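Hi L.,

You mentioned the student needs an example of a multi-chain input paired with its predicted structure. This one should do, with 770 residues in total across all chains.
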Amino acid sequence: MIDLFQTYWQSFLWTDGQQWSGVIVTLLLLIVSVLGGFALSIPLALGRVSSSRSLSAVIWLYTYTFRTTPLYVQLLIIYSGLYSLTFIQNTAVLNSFFRDAYCCTLLAFVLNECAYMTEILVGSIRASSRGEVEAGRAFGLSATVLNLKVILPSALRRALPAYSNEVIFMLHGTTLAFTATVPDILKVARDVNAETYATFTTYGLASLLYLMISFCVIVSFNRAENRWLRHLKPRKAKQAVDHSAPLIKEGSLV
Amino acid sequence: MARSAGHDGYLFVMVGPRCLVLSTYCEYCVMQWLDYLPLIAKGALSTVELALVALALALSLGLITALAKLSGKPWLTFPAQCYTTLIRGIPDLALMLLIFYTIQIGINQLTDKLGLGHFEIDPFVAGVMTLGFIYGAYFAETFRGAFLAIDRGQAEAACAYGLTARQTFQKVLLPQMVRFALPGISNNWQVLVKATALVSIIGLSDLVMAAQEAGRSTHDTLMFMVLAGAVYFALSGFSSLLLYWIKHRSAGWVREAQL
Amino acid sequence: MNKNLVVACVVLLLCSTGAKAEDVLRLGVDPTYPPLESRDSQGKIIGFDIDLGDEICKRLAVKCEYVQSSFDGLIPGLLARKFDGVLSSLSVTEQRLKQIDFSDKLSNPSTRLVARAGSGILPTPAGLKGKTVGFEQGTIQEAYARTYWKVPGIKLQAYASQDQVYADLLNGRVDASLQDEVQANYAFLKTDQGKGYEFAGPIIVDAKVLGNGTAIGLRKEDQDLKRGIDKAIAQMLADGTYQKIASKYFDFDIYGG
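Structure written out for the whole complex:
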């Protein structure tokens, strides 16, 4: 495996001489689809929990469709299928968008990721403390302020563990990018395999790279959880509580 | 600007396997469909078969691994932990490509060493073993969480009654674990069904490959891909209903917290 | 979960595998390359290579079983003993000979570039400057492109199967595609979709990278099988069966002397 890596390390890590490939591409796909999906999911989640039944139903249909169909099929439809429609080829903007492999791949990934993140956020919003929301309304907070300052911050924190799983799943999903000829780690591995036929070593090397990226993702999410979910961690008592001492010191309320 | 043999006036509505066409191509569209329907149906059937058998293997592997992890003995916990961490850290497709060829090579080397005749693994079995091995790790986590969610008092009461460890597991823990594991099992099942779409990449026949072939011959990939998506959609809906029924059967007596 | 059911399933699984039957010859094929190998609407694998394979098996008195695989999975599959031979328009090249052995020559299709009519593209680094070339992964055409056209200014794109190359040629994602001449003619240029496209430049000849004809790929240790297949091929050429099969598909000499 070492000599394989020594020969092909550049393709695996960042470039195959012509374009970006390997780890850089995987990271790019991962980061853009996660951030894009996350940004889109917030308004969609708020729409889904809103009182408007039709809006909620439409968003549910979108998330259900994208969650139940395989990402592979979605990517094939967006990359190969949609481009064959005449009206897309005739519109200049759409034509240049769908023509580009990266755009197609990112569109499929962002839509897929957004569907999952919307559902996670919806579950988290629904688990909001009722009392908090009622108190907010009692204070006369408008819906916008209520959402932005009361509901979303705690919902996002609650959803953090689920998000970490989701990012790992998205990392798994980036392996499908070869369908749209985007050269991620696995595509480079397949190309190297086609040249050397060393199946176990090439795919083993690719697996190692993915493991390292997973590890980095898990560590960063652990750090994020330590910071934002510190209040949920069990706390050790620093010292024994002294029951004989009065709770309120004399004279302290004056 | 490149033009393909365009579909003028083709309008798609992604609602189930219906093709709403607003032009004279309507009849042509339906005719092509009917020709390839048996092929698609066969692909759908092989997908379901693959998923079901892989599920059986994954459930068994998952249960064994979960028990190994919960046993507390380091010689059991360590390999189980390695297994789940590795499988969940490496993407499905990379694992499939790795395992699919390695299984056969490994068996070949084994049979060569032992002097046995060639033992052939047919593609379906290889696909099942690959998928089962991968999803066993995910199910292990589900089962582990489910076992941990059972009230401690149950095991203690069983012990107080003098039940052996094996009896406790079989009669007390296992049935109760099912109730807690069901949401996780249903989630993982949905993911497994979608993962079967990936086996077409390693060359096995399944629904996606059938749809691609039909699309290739009729030069209409979009329609058949949407059809394949619709079949997965329907499969998932059907699974949800089935799992709802199972939940009712096994845990209908539980009153969930009213939100 | 009924444990017995689970155990039964796993046992059934293991029983369904079996030892190889002696009178079956498993041949790996990637049926996405008409007219050499493809699937008809019933899903049956058909084509020129399949007809040749059936004839060879008849002469060897064995049953032919075609195992589907992706093209770049054919040689790894052969080495992993998923099948005993590769019959998928596999060209004999030095690089492949390092891993596997080949039977005697089966055919000699030539390689040619396809592009839009009037595009002025030629199969040289200068003629392809600023263009994108597509080809199927794992083929000799990929090896050729990566050997001679890996220069700045030319973009190379590998696809999992040949029809994906044509699909992207049609919608303009690639400007030219490199494949077998006869395959391009039959599956693309002569069809409705191929109107407006033509061969770009002459046939490309390069014995080192493109090899010298196609043959059945075999494992290096299966010398008995190789001898049997070579004998069958020689008989077919001598008594005219080869020509009869070839004339069904091609109006020129595919064997190439």
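You could point out the following to them. The two ends of chain C are 65 Å apart (CA to CA). Chain C has two domains: 22-108+212-249, 111-210.

Best wishes,
N.
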